[in-house]
Amino acid sequence: MRDKLGPLPYPAGMALPFPDLTLPVESAAPTLRRVLSGVAQAHAQALRQTAGHDDRELAQFLGLLDDAGALRPLLLRPNVSVLARVWLAVPQKRAELRDRLRAALAVEAALVGKLAEPLDLPRSASVALPRFGDWIAAAMRIQPDGICAVACDATPFTSFREWAQIAAACGIGPHFLPIHPALPNARLALADDNPLPIFYDHPKRRGNTVGLGDQPPQAWLDQLAFAVDQLAAHLPALLDEMRVFLGHIVPVGTLEEDHQSASYPHALGTIYLTLHPRPMMMLEALIHEFQHNKLHALMQLGPLLAGDEDLRVASPVRPDPRPLRGVLLAVHAFLPVAELYRRLVAADDPLTREHWFAERYAVIRQTNRAAWLTVQRHAKWTPLAQGLAQELARLDAALSEP
């Protein structure tokens, strides 16, 4: 799915290159943090400028948040950023999304003590509360020290935590389930706040519907816990990046024979996954879609490929000809998966003795190599992508060795 908005103005003073945005070499995710800082700065500027032309009240609210140092960090929260990005990208949705965007910003600002004055919102301003597990769908007054609203059974509530308790008593939710202590901000999201219709441009896929399929939530959480534990053991620096950037994992059903996953440029920090009987498929998909999120963030600062990014080329990872940009996304996604397999072998992990492991590892390496050769053959890199191109070449050479 192509981003409807495209790149934002590149933030002044932001240094290049970004040398390890594929496989981080340092803990604490310094390169990714630098990219996200630029994305937040660019979005804050675009929001304030656009609102200044079209919506003075919203512009004033954004200005107060920005003056308090809250706007940019909040724009990296998945439940805020997706609304902001779509509000910017799709003018015909601005009226519909205005109150939801204000509500999401106000709630998150209040939770960190950065809301300067109360904000009254109508019932249409439903807002996700991922850290408390649920949604609020009620007319509400969001205050600097809490909230004032009436819940589903006409019970007044005055705090976000109290709302979660009332919602549980009313049989609502929870809609956002904690995944793992190592990812304290990530949630299994049983509701999706992405306001754009979801569709695939993949010949074997017809769309997404949020749902657990035929498995209970615990089955999903168990596979995610396995994935996080493997990352902690074998790719800890990548797990550090997820701790910074991964917010919502949206389940989209179960499949016995196949595994499907997706992510979208306007929904940073969110990934969509199916559940597969083999837990390793969840781990691969988690890495793969998180990598897409990182590259989607970088592409919001500018194009990575000079010339025609939509040039169609034969793809080793898809049955249909793909835009060159799509093959680049595949290379960037699969190289850390290959590195995970290499480290599992080096550690003599029990997974390496599973009957499927050797064949799967060989397929990943061969596919990576073919995809990178395709990119090399056609790509003309922009200055923004120079560090990425050098890193991809280095990783491909290392992982192609016997």
Keywords:
402 residues, 47% helix, 13 strands, 12 helices, 5-stranded mixed sheet, globular, alpha+beta, 4-stranded antiparallel sheet
In short:
The chain is of the alpha+beta class. It contains 12 helices and 13 strands.
Number of helices: 12
Number of strands: 13
Shape: globular
| Main sheet overview | 5 strands, mixed
Q: How much strand content do the residues show? A: 5-15%
Strand order of the largest sheet: 7-8-9-11-10
Q: Separation of termini?
A: 36 Å
Mean pLDDT, rounded to whole units?
88
Uncertain regions: pLDDT < 50 for 5+ in a row?
A: 199-203
Query: Structural class of the helix and strand makeup?
Result: alpha+beta
Fraction of helical residues:
40-55%
Order of helices and strands: HHHHHEEEEEEHEEHHEEEHEEHHH
The oligomeric state of the chains shown is single chain
What does this structure look like?
The protein is of the alpha+beta class. The chain has helices spanning 30-54, 56-67, 71-74, 78-89, 94-111, 160-169, 217-234, 236-245, 279-299, 324-346, 357-378, 386-400, and strands at residues 119-121, 127-129, 134-136, 140-143, 146-150, 156-157, 176-180, 183-189, 248-254, 261-262, 270-275, 312-313, 322-323. The strands form four sheets. Strands 7-8-9-11-10 form a five-stranded mixed sheet. It has a four-stranded antiparallel sheet with strand order 1-4-5-6. Helix 7 (217-234) crosses helix 8.
